[in-house]
Amino acid sequence: GDGTGVSICINHHHIHPTLCKLSQNCLSSLISTDYGKSFHDISHRINHTFIREEFGVSVGPGSSVILTADTPVVDNPGGIIFTSMDAGATFKFIQLPFHLAQPVTYHFFNPDYLVALSIDVSHSNIISMTTDLEGVTVVFFDTDERGDLVLKRTKDLGETFTTIHEDIYSFGYIGAFLFFSVMEEPRSPRVMYFSSDQGDTFSRALLPSASTEQFYSILDGDEDMLFMHVDNPGDTFFGTMYTSDDRGILFSKSLERHLFDGQRKSDFTNITSLRGVYLTNKLDLDGRIRSVISFNRGGTWKQLNKPDNVDCGEQVKSVRWCNLHIHGEHSRNNRIVPMLALSEPTAIGLVIAHGTVGDSLSSSQHPDVFVSSDGGYNWRGTLRGPHHYSILDSGGLIVAVEAQREGQVKTIKFSTDEGQCWKSYNFTEQPFFFAGLACEPGTKAMNVSVWGFRPEEDGQPMWVAVTIDFQSLITRECNDQDYEQWLAHSAEGGTSERKGCVLGVKETYRRLKRQSVCRNGRNFVVSKKQSSCLCTREDYLCDYGYYRHVNTSDCVRQPSAANKSLEMCLNGEEDELLTAGYRKVPSDRCEGGYNPQLAVQTVIRPCGVKPSPGPPDKSTSSVTHFDTLVIIVLVAVVSAVISVRRVVYSNS
Ligand SMILES: *[C@@H]1O[C@H](CO)[C@@H](O)[C@H](O)[C@H]1NC(C)=O
Ligand SMILES: *[C@@H]1O[C@H](CO)[C@@H](O)[C@H](O)[C@H]1NC(C)=O
Ligand SMILES: *[C@@H]1O[C@H](CO)[C@@H](O)[C@H](O)[C@H]1NC(C)=O
Ligand SMILES: *[C@@H]1O[C@H](CO)[C@@H](O)[C@H](O)[C@H]1NC(C)=O
Ligand SMILES: *[C@@H]1O[C@H](CO)[C@@H](O)[C@H](O)[C@H]1NC(C)=O
Question: Which of 127, 248, 255, 502 supports an S-S bond with 241, CB 3.0-4.6 Å?
């Protein structure tokens, strides 16, 4: 947690209790409260329970942490978690009536709620749940007599249920959205339904349907919108990316030939240090991978500028074909790079990533480290070869350790000017095998721990953590002269009035001058001035049932052919949509300027479903109400269901 200085270290070496006296390996967990400088045993706080290796630790907001126990005991009815609200000083023990299938996560809107996913089919027929703020909404799967999946919902912790849809294929949640996919007729392609109101209504997404050999994948989502990948038929390793509106109904094509490899990994990255910036890779017609960046949340994509200080290499015929290409999950999975692109909301504009310069992303060329200070418009080559890197002091300090496949490490590099100059520091006399760089989330700290191991004589590795406190090196606190005003997205150009406008707003940040060597410190907060921009056509989408006319770019009512799908939904569904044909791009806050007006507002009924009250389901009365600070919410999955966490993509 931010500002706690606490690290928890979990031991996954199980040793039989009777051998414990002989070995330190019986310690199940250690804690450090001084940024990793010293550790002590806290096994007793969790009753000497061993913590799972896979998703054993979930760190929440503030000082909350959840440890999930390894429970090999056969007669145990469910999983065990230990929750702490004080960064591990005390733990509360909770026995779950189900087994976890995924890490416990904190609810998107209210971190007091936890969301869990279980695979217990045996435990009554509760399969999955999700909460809302007023009470608890439970959405869950059930299997009917034929073994098909039914999506049901309860708002009273299992007293009564309503059926949302039958014959469900998958169900999940991301950001503020709940979704399910369904084959509406046997062996027909799947379609997706989304809810942006915690399950009150689900609407069919205007997306291409997916046959059984295709998949949908939600790349990222927040309270406003979703990025959605729809796989191409066949093993093409690419598909089409769509962006949604705020209701999850309207989807606009954002990027074609979006790379999605055989292991179902996409390189989609949210650049969190600048609003509206996303990075991903395409698989082009010539079979090469090229990087593209969007500065307007998927509205348009373009290739990355070539860094000024890096040459294109001999193979590149012309500077026109020379760009920066960034390694993503695809490359990390193939061990080409040790880390993904790094950006932090507190370090405005800063992006650090591995890449290659040339015609396309090269896996044979050694990846180098590149830095951008303006959110991805301009880049600089900064370190040769692959590195592990971290951002400290809200971007005032970057640290990096060279990635050594076999060798041992003893040196850390650091830069106070966003990677223009680097200095080295030998932090140990005895080098060790590198395992990771650990620093506090939130980037406010100036302590970083390098951890790894040294082989000991008895063959057992000895774990080592070295904590480096850069506070003793950068001693001056920043003052007003160290900061400057920076208009975000100003590198985009445009007329002075529209310069910096993205999604209807321009933002001027107060940020540290690059040449200032001083500490932002713990009290640093990102401060910005916002002003709204005049609206243009680009700030609007054509609403459901409308399309953009090629010649006038006005939104016009879809002709009768397309109306067919609309009519299908007119019967039986009461949900109505009042529309003037235009809809603002999600979270766009432009004011004045272009104001599209259709003469009449028309009513359109999207293909929606509302939960219909079903008979109360007695067998689910075993839903348990937990007498703890948190309300545990179960989500369990049957076979084909894969759910989505916020950062991790998944396919459904
Ligand atoms: C702790 O362990 C003891 C003995 O193994 C057991 O009786 C007790 O129920 C455990 N308590 C918790 C909270 O796990
Ligand atoms: C991208 O990251 C920013 C900053 O953390 C966040 O506010 C935004 O919701 C994210 N976007 C999506 C689509 O997840
Ligand atoms: C760090 O150690 C290397 C040898 O491994 C040495 O060449 C270098 O000069 C040392 N750097 C500093 C700053 O002491
Ligand atoms: C670094 O760690 C020390 C304790 O070991 C702590 O007193 C100090 O505040 C930390 N510095 C920062 C900037 O977090
Ligand atoms: C658009 O304009 C072109 C040339 O002016 C015309 O040939 C075409 O039919 C127009 N398209 C539509 C859909 O009206």
Answer: 255
